[in-house]
Amino acid sequence: MSVAIRFSDVKKRFGEVEALRGVTFEVQEGEFFALLGPNGAGKTTLISILGGLTRPDSGAVSVLGSNVQQDYLAARRKLGIVPQELTFDPFFTVRETLQFQSGYFGLRKNDAWIDELLSNLGLADKAQANMRSLSGGMKRRVMVAQALVHKPPVIVLDEPTAGVDVELRQTLWDFISRLNRDGHTIVLTTHYLEEAEALCSRIAMLKQGELVALDDKQALLKADSARALTLKLFPDVLPAALRPMLVQEQDGGYVLKLDDCNALEPILVVLREAGVAIRDIGIQKPDLEAVFLEVMGRKAQ
Amino acid sequence: MQGFYTLFTKEILRFWKVSFQTVAAPVLTAVLYLMIFSHVLESHVEAYPGVRYTAFLIPGLAMMSMLQNAFANTSSSLIQSKLTGNIVYILLPPLSHFEFFMAYVLAAIGRGVFVGVGVLAVCATFAVPSFAEPAWIIIFALLGSGVLAVLGLIAGIWAEKFDQLAAFQNFVIVPLTFLSGVFYSIHSLPAFWLGVSHLNPVFYMIDGFRYGFFGVGDVSPWLSFGVVATTFVLLAAFALHLLRTGYKLRH
Fold this sequence. Notes:
The complex is a heterodimer of chains A (about 300) and B (about 250). Chain A is α/β, with parallel strands linked by helices and about 300 residues long. Chain A has 2 domains: about 5-220, P-loop containing nucleotide triphosphate hydrolases (Rossmann fold, 3-Layer(aba) Sandwich), CATH 3.40.50; about 225-285, Alpha-Beta Plaits (2-Layer Sandwich). Chain A has helices spanning about 45-50, 70-75, 95-105, 110-120, 135-150, 165-180, 195-200, 215-225, 265-275, 290-300; strands at about 5-15, 15-30, 30-35, 60-65, 65, 80, 155-160, 185-190, 200-205, 210-215, 225-235, 245-250, 255-260, 275-285. Chain B has one domain.
């Protein structure tokens, strides 16, 4: 499998602010990759450099072997970027917008694929509508279509579902997942960590311009977070033997740290021997949000 | 080349979709100037021997309108795209600096020519100038619009606010185009102002253009051609340099 995107020691400073402090990692071809991080971490700067909108102070970036500065025409042809901000040209209709995008990428008669994009993104009846007349969600769908008119092998989405309703989110993800299954490399940034967890196979985390985590999703979930056991007891007293495992008291229940599922049985034994009945029991699996907060918190030290 | 052609088409459509504002309005403005100035000056001024003032005025007005609109096309398109953010859709695709430059400049020349033809057509109902050497007319129409189109590209890249662009337009372009011999022949000016006019590239555009109509000018058309062509080449080189370095377009 070859490398879809390579970031090599990318540095970028905006005046006083060091946006990127030497970021290095690779995205493999065909991956569904998540780039996570708090606001101001440098994700959009990294994507801007990828697209040629911003130039790095030092370091190199390449897309499927083409350097984004020296070989910029080839690099841009292989990329489709959906920017974060909702922007559009108010002079033109949806179809005109997509036809122009196709032309910029060198495609003359692209109407068949444009029609397919429009129908897949639920925009078929809006093809002749002026961009100005569309709702925010529709504009965002058009932006996704714009990035896909030239069927780029590498697709980058910068917070594509920000402010988007649940139904549309589902439509978008179904479509993007299908593209990924067809072989397109997808890079996603999002604040909705459950999306990243559901869709992505490998995850990078950026904080204040530095890469603080880079691993397969499964590895991250396993390594950084134990399970949590939530118990509601009757009588509502936690046996002393279990006190050391208590993480917090929440909603009338006790949350205990569960290193792995084998630790469950001894806990139940303690409860039985103390004569305490279990009113409610729940096991929280590690989720990406917990991992994320832990990684971000850890790096603050 | 498909990229260039698409961007060029888009830029043409952009002004054509609002042609009342971009073509019809400038034509009307020029006609109003014609009506007023010819009424006031027709019997008092003869700029060139044997040429009615009204006829004298028409080519100058046509050129002035072409120049102002060529500048407006590139500059307004760029600044609007930058400020609304949709410039990303031009910066992300694989368009070379040259394609970018040619598309914007040629579309602006296109607008200039549309406006120029419109002005001449409507003004022909007042007076018809002669067409002594049409080749010069075409050359100066294209080169003159080209210079202002490139200037508009540079201004559109440089300006960060509408206000800055308006300042450039109102304090540089408008004076340069008005004080260039459109309404008068510069040989009627006192020596100092005559000298100043000779430093204004727009004067040479207008004089050369007018030479194409009347076979008469304040300077030789070859000198005018030299000045305007050199100005174009220098500005174009500068604009391409700005595009290559990504000045204000790519941080």
